[in-house]
Amino acid sequence: MRFSRMYLPTLKEEPAEAEVISHRLMLRAGMVRRLAAGIYSYLPMGLMALRNVEAIIRQEMNRAGAQELLLPAVQPAELWQESGRWDFYGKELLRITDRHQRNFCFGPTHEEVITDLVRHEVRSYRQLPLNLYQIQTKFRDEIRPRFGLMRGREFIMKDAYSFDVDDAAAGISYQGMREAYSRIFSLCGLDFRAVEADSGAIGGSFSHEFVVLAESGEDAVASCQACAYAANVEKAEGRFAAADKCAADAAAPAAAAVATPDRESVESVAAFFKVDPGAILKSMIFESDRGFCLVVVPGDREVNEIKVKAALGAEWLEIPAPSRIADELGLPVGYLGPVDTVLPLLVDRQVPELEAVVCGANRHGFHLQGVIWGRDFSCNKVADLVQVRAGDRCPRCGGLLQIDRGIEVGHIFKLGTKYSEKLKATFLDQEGQERPLVMGCYGIGVGRTVAAAIEQHYDENGICFPYAIAPFKVALLNLDLKSAEVTAACEALYAELEGRGIAVLYDDRNERPGVKFKDADLIGAPLRLTLGRKSFERGIIEARLRDGSSNAELPLADRAPLWSLLAELAADDSRIPS
Ligand code: ATP
Ligand code: MG
Fold it and tell me: What is the pLDDT at residue 242?
């Protein structure tokens, strides 16, 4: 491609709207433009990067035996009612009405549609296993779209769905996808981890996320410093050992109410009583389809809402506005506590281990001191409800957990029969018995993968694309357009590169060398070739790797060293797991 002809509107200034590196660089490199919140146009170079990721995905999905299809983006409400998700998916689901007042949604994911397709076609175990995938635009009305393609509302996803005869066979499909995903993200040049994860709105029993480690990531991963355990903090558990605690001292003084005006936060209450925040109980009201509930955790820990939702067996969960709580209980949130509360309790497993604690007195301006579990309050709903933090112990080996930030680029789920039972997608097994299909589903965010790759590969001058996903493998800079000889040599090289199918951006613009160097750095082609008057006279082309790892002078008269350098760059798949 000639730069002079390419629709590649690079920006010199830092775009004000961008908060993270990848978003900034994708705007500056003319890859994307925002149309509305979380909705982006992909410009030619942006689309080239996406297509490269898609090509890797297709290659590896096909290798794993999956077959590509394309499902409709617009889905009828009836299917979502059948699965039960019409009511529970919430506001992320973009609901639309057609001219006949029929309800539809713009697909955020396709479990219902694929299950519907397969239930009409698959009858017998002989047609299984089956793995179908598509690469398609999804819409999720995200509450906080941000970071460009990282968290859009409209975005491109590869989603795959497997169908098997039983759990064991589904496990094999899952493992196959796990391996395919490892190859895909390795080929994309990413440093990633496969970690245990929560199944979220998709549901199912078991899942792994593929997380690209990056400071800007919205996810946090807990991993053990001693063993291979790694999990999203949404899911991670710390090791728990019940303390060897003596029975509560019968002589311990009774709990006493103490006036604590204007002390509503854990910190301010801890300071008031001169105790550690861990000796305060944090009590929070949650509302779910199961009603209200008071969740109680040690004051120095954060509540993990996903664990709360799981412990309640709830379909949805939210924190009601403080004004609603005040209306309901006549109390500001800062004075809630478990003693004599009218609300159902859910207590973190560490709470019964605490000695006498301080908690809200359910009375405006008061806290209780000397509160003892089992004497002053108790409940039979005790579970792990807190977020792990660095220094907690690994649930497998007891080693120390560390927390790293990362970007979830892929997610694989064992769905079991959640959708096939609801949608009555069954098959006849070898004995002629009718059984529900056992499913798995597997997603990759295509745009998010490109963004994540940039988060891991950039410098102060711009993007340093990994070769496999680079829109242009080579930037060829003609520094002396006025010289017929230099230009002829550039044109010849340009034609040869194109002839070999190597994506090259030939900078034939009438611009100063400084501008060309800047743009070449910005767009991140892995190899830069420069030809000007001086180098031409010396019979060489200057070659420089974008990541700064090497510079070389290649002979103008002999292409062999250039072809072998490019072959080396292309073959750098040493990171693929065997
Ligand atoms: P997140 O927790 O980040 O919202 P998710 O768990 O909702 O992700 P899945 O339903 O598993 O995501 O979707 C599969 C993949 O689609 C994700 O791994 C991610 O790469 C991509 N993805 C999901 N939501 C978005 C989004 N809003 N913008 C871009 N990519 C997304
Ligand atoms: Mg999501």
Answer: 76
